[in-house]
Amino acid sequence: MTAVDPVSPRRLDHKASLTAQINAAQRAAESMQPRRLLDDPGSRHFVGHPVFRAMLARRLPAAAALRVFDWWWGGLHAHIVLRVRFTDDVVGAAIGAGVDQVVLLGAGFDTTSLRRADTAVTIFEVDAPATQAAKRPVTERLLPSPRASQTVWVPCDFEDGALRTRLVDSGFDPARRSVIVWLGVSMYLTGHAIDQTLADLAALCAPGSRLVFDYLDAEVVAGRSRWAGARRVTRMVARRGEPYRSGFTATGVAELLGAHGFVCRDQVGVADLLRRYDPAGARGLASDDWLGIVCAERR
């Protein structure tokens, strides 16, 4: 792992993450395309920025914006939309096998609670209070009534080491299998926070539980990435006050998870995701390979 561990890492908990809103806009724009790789129209309800809302007003402006985004930050759009497809496959298989607890760590504007409303499952939304304050009223307005699922809101800062306590206090049952979804978070955390979170998950997850976890290539954080788009994204997030702090190699991820009692069951990069979900290349998205995602099982 490559990581930067400042003594007092800056956090943006005083406002909802702009990154979460950008991701929601990308998912919504992809959902508008005729050859879409993701169907997540509910994401548009979490987009408040006027530029992004204007982009989503019509299909053609949305398509044009995605083409520019994909050209300038190659690989990022494919990862953002296809990590949702990958995760949905894992969650769907787990629910089919009887799992009824789903934990969204750093949930951002993820719409799992909306898309699984007709499923008898408890979804724990874990995130910084400011992002939850923006997300919760919108989600609760859109959720159908009655519904089969239950959404539990768990405000938490990953740097304070309280994840285990907060989840259990919110009704999470460590004796039952679960699916933990941890997307778009690890790259913004210190190495210590990642290690502490995995230790908490190891203690919380019953054998057979699944963890979906995405990560940034170590070369990106080290400033040596061969992908120009990755270098541009790194500079952009740093200027915005949400710098990348941690990155991994594929081998390093497997070793880290293994040290905490998880075994990798599936691990893919951007090019792998595109081969899996767009084998004919219908969307023509860049496959710059500087992000990865893994599904691991608690031993």
Automatic annotation (TrEMBL):
Return the SUPFAM superfamilies for the record: S-adenosyl-L-methionine-dependent methyltransferases (SSF53335)
Q: Which UniProt keywords apply?
A: Methyltransferase, S-adenosyl-L-methionine, Transferase
Q: What class of enzyme is it?
A: transferase
Gene3D superfamilies given for it?
Vaccinia Virus protein VP39
> Could you state one GO biological process linked to this protein?
methylation
What does the function comment of this entry state?
A: Exhibits S-adenosyl-L-methionine-dependent methyltransferase activity.
Family per UniProt? Belongs to the UPF0677 family.
Q: What protein am I looking at?
A: S-adenosyl-L-methionine-dependent methyltransferase
Please give the organism.
Mycobacterium talmoniae
